[in-house]
Design a protein that fits this description.
This protein is an alpha+beta fold. The protein is built from two helices and two strands; from the N terminus they run H-H-E-E.
């Protein structure tokens, strides 16, 4: 290890994104809030019941042990956005919010 303390600055935008994620998780009772939003936005939510939802991704699971660490990172699409060309409607300068958690959730590494 390098024995240095590495940090990233916290911005108001990042704080708001983190609080928004927490709010949406609490309101929905789910950890997979973005997956549910995608399904709803694309009309795939017709007839979604509690039986269709993965019970291991219910927010109550976070309190069964010692919880989980969640984080957000606010990013900007670079000018040389060759990663996004043709694959999305993102353009240079757009803001993208990345979300992550520590460890597995519901036995999954990715949601």
């Amino acid at each position: 290890r390098c024995s240095k303390w590495h940090t990233l600055p916290t911005t108001e935008e990042a704080k708001c994104a983190a609080l928004d994620l927490r709010r949406r998780m609490v309101e929905s009772g789910r950890i997979d809030v973005d997956e549910l939003k995608l399904r709803i936005d694309h009309g795939d939510d017709k007839g979604i019941s509690q039986h269709d939802l993965d019970p291991t991704l219910a927010i109550e699971r976070l309190y069964e042990r010692r919880g989980k660490m969640f984080g957000v990172l606010v990013c900007e699409v670079p000018d040389n956005n060759h990663f996004y060309s043709g694959s999305s409607n993102l353009t240079s300068g757009d803001t993208v919010i990345l979300k992550a958690y520590a460890g597995k959730l519901g036995g999954k590494w990715n949601l």
